[in-house]
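Q: Convert this sequence to structure tokens.
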Amino acid sequence: MVAVLLAEDDADIRDLVTFTLREAGYEVRAFEDGLSALASARDNRPDLAVLDIMMPGMSGLDACRELRADPATSEVPIILLTARAQEPDIETGFAVGADDYIVKPFSPRELASRVHAVLARIQT
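A:
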């Protein structure tokens, strides 16, 4: 089963994403902050990470940078899921290594489709 790492500080959104991705057939390991998610990724490499940008302790951008800098996790596909929708925010997300960028509010079906698409791209 494909393992998805989720870092999202909002419990309602975390629950929605977890439910959506589990219904789509993914195993989800959910965390409320970037530090915990990063530690989990280092201990048990996920197949894909979904990171909120604005979280306490360590932002999703910093977690993305750390995942890319570590040879053990540098190839993990990363989707940023965030309320930051301005063009400079999106550019920064891709500049730190994100494979996709989804703006909140989002469609759960679109999220599942984009997770599937990112995973399909890396398998080819």
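The mean pLDDT is 96.
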